[in-house]
Amino acid sequence: MKRPPLSPDLITHVAVHKMTVHDGHWLPDALDDLADRSLAPKVLLADSHYGSADNMTLAQRCSIDLTAPARTAKGGSSGRLTLDEVGLVLECPSGLAPASTAALISRSRSAHGKA
Prior knowledge:
Blueprint: H1 27-36, E1 43-45, H2 53-61, E2 65-67, E3 82-83, E4 89-91, H3 107-110
Parallel strand pairs: 1-2
Antiparallel strand pairs: 3-4
């Protein structure tokens, strides 16, 4: 049986942020960047950090089929760290809270109503 040719898997967007904040909130920026370069995907497979209702709505508006597990509930355990609703670390598995946390918001995110 002959296999159909495989399409290439390419990295089309890279952004570096602090590891204490998950990257699911950066999806609008990533999709804007990809659209600006005519690289918007038709299908996006992602981890649970991308599975928020906001991201699902955004993907639908952009005609992108986003497949991602649902996010854990606010204050729920991510398996290792306990996160708040925006992904900031509340405590580690040992129950210790971080000394501080902060989230950066880019200017382009405010264009999506995420100020």
